[in-house]
Amino acid sequence: MTTPLLEVKGLTVAYERDGSPFQAVRNAKFSLGAGDTLGIVGESGSGKSTIAFAVAGYLPENARIASGSISFAGSDISSLAARHRYGITGKKIAMVYQDPAGALNPIMPIGEQIAEVYRLHSRCSRAAAREKTVDMLHRVHLRDPHRAYDKYAHQFSGGQQQRIVIAMALAAEPSLLILDEPTTGLDVSVEAEILALIAELRTFVKASILYISHDVRVISDTCDRVAVMYAGEIVESGPTTEILRSPSHPYTRALLDCLIPFGAVKESVRLASIDGQLDIAHATGCSFAPRCSLAEERCHQKSPPMAAVAENRASRCYFYDKIPTKDIRRSIPARRSNLGQPRPLLNIVNVEKQYAVRGNQTRALASVTLSIPSNRVIGVIGESGSGKTTLARVISGLELPSSGSLQLGGAKLHGRVQNRPVEVRRAIQMVFQNPNATLNPSHTAGYALRRAVQKLTGLRGAKCEERVRELLASVKLSPRHLEALPEQLSGGERQRIAIARAFAAQPALVLCDEPTSALDVSARAIILNLLADIQASTGTSYIFISHDLATVRYIADEIIVMYLGDIVATGSAAAIFERPVHPYVETLVNALLPSRQRRDLQRVESSPPTSNAPRGCVFHQRCPYKVGPICEEPPPWQTSMGHRYRCVIAPERLAYLQRSHQVQVENN
Ligand code: SF4
Ligand code: SF4
Fold first, then answer.
1. Which ipTM score applies to this complex?
2. Where are the domains of the chain?
3. Of the chain's two ends, which shows fewer C-beta atoms within 10 Å, N or C?
4. Given ligand 2 and candidates 582, 619, 638, 657, which is best to mutate, with the most ligand atoms within 8 Å of its CB?
5. Is any ligand 1 atom within 6 A of the Cβ of residue 295?
């Protein structure tokens, strides 16, 4: 039998917290052969990244391997001190992290950083290292690698930086490449580009891949095998396609059920979530028992062993053969709004926003004109740097527009929130991505809600208390949460408090800026259900910003598509997602498709920084259908079924070009 490249046996990793040990990983066991790909998937706190750090030898100082072993190429490396790992970590084992900017030296050209790896590991000359670096940058599809060599990290977008970090990891020609959430936080189209790149790398790089992700879909795109982690334990493992088709553990089933089904919309689907919270310190029995719908008495008394359930498959569940193969909770009736026709609510006319960056003017919004109606959810989509968050901040009064005007209900809206009368501040509220940033850590949830109710409605005493409890009930929290400090609440509960606070005075418009992006799949489902329910019952309009297109598709009625500060298309959600016409919208929506149906995404590399916004059509530097110099003039608005878009090409011609391109790609 051949020795696996990586073999982890009985691995337990303990952290020292407040003077007592706490096991983040318990008794983990898996192996990885040469050229294999294994995904480790689970919610935050499941222990998946701790395993990656233990294998790479990067555990923090307050963590130690309490028991078990990690064998790499036949040698136990778990007990090696950092200095004895030289020649293994960074060379034979390379790691790519979530935050590429943090992995790059900001004051050294990126080419030099990669060339240094070649010089160290291959002991080649400067000239040879430069040549190899340019070749590697070309392989990871970085545009113009010769010029890119001399640029600095800040001159690249997030997706380009991640390509550079992957190039640097590969320069050491590792036997094992650990990818720790390498696409988390990237826009959907950039994520698709990086996933396509990783799939392509597998054809020319011999390294085995250990892929850590909270996203089952990403793992299904990239890995042959998967290990599902819950509360520090691997609870199921086996071939990815088999596990996703018929899971043998209730947690895997629940994780899959929480995903937003492809193309699902709020009117027809209520999202499934997992009851309760992950409890890493769970005392006895199966760690998933408090949240498991199949749990019986013995599950609470004795932890089930990890046992083989089929060839190459194992599960840590007494009832592995009773897991439903299909999500049975989708039949719950969804919601329908009965609040009548939309009326004009907010008008934005020629709003521009410029920032001075290092002495240069950078355009964040380019003469944006649009109307937001009442009783509608408007989804705003576009990659980082498209201007969607700036738009929300200008509407909320947190940013002053450089020019242009805003009207709410026909009356002029002052640029600065401080200059807006209380009824206007009441009418426009905001929910941010990170509720921690807006909840004072030393004040209870009850204090935050009471303060918002008093400030915005003037209610006091019993009436204020009554409103606070109404708000709490609307976000499905109980009165006991009123006494909790933010740190005593889960991420999802904190976001629910932030939503309750935004609705304190029955706003007309709530700006939701990536409200679910920092949450696990189950908490995301809970928040989306809540937002959709509240909107259906109150008629409040939302401007809903997210880089997660499945989320926007689910909740939005209408869509605005932005690119480099400009609006390039608007229309009903159905038209934009089901019949995308504008070439940029086509690229974005394409990234939503299951990987096997995506069309040649690498032909379109991620957007340039906003400081380099081109003249004319903002998309012309990436557009696969660019006609010629005419595209470098401002394009006209065109109208197609259910939406409007800016392009020189008429809808029928664009549809023809898109079909031809698809056929061409499929034939290649
Ligand atoms: S052992 Fe029991 S509680 Fe644990 S996952 Fe299986 S059915 Fe659920
Ligand atoms: S105007 Fe030209 S470059 Fe812009 S989207 Fe249309 S075809 Fe592409």
1. 0.91
2. 579-667
3. N
4. 619
5. yes
